[in-house]
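=== Per-residue structure ===
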Amino acid sequence: MIMSAGAVRVSAGTLTRLITIEHKQATQDTQYGTQVITWVPLAVLPGSPPVAERFWAEVQDALPSRSESVMQGLAVARNQTRVRIRWRSDIDSSMRITVHGDTDVVYQIIGGPAEIRGRRRMLEMMCERYSS
């Protein structure tokens, strides 16, 4: 394969984890009139069943990987993770990511997404999960 100078090749070898990207959807509760927030997979079209599209990603804990703090009297551990995927234009920081594995882990996007490796090749997001 011949590549021009400055071209960056995206290796599928580093994209080893399957993730689902979800966005918030607000609906109105018909009985009480309150707002209900649900998480809907990014790739679902209006009127279609909520089947999540999964994306290949590189998931890497950021160092230091854990920090602890006290929120409202509870000890809360935070785990920050860096997630890289192939470039997409429809992701923002209000979304969340589920990393699939033996047990699914849900992360909130807290930073990014930022274009890395130039020319719309990759996106990087800083994500965080909380546990008490």
In short: The domain at 15-131 is CATH 2.40.10.270 (Thrombin, subunit H).
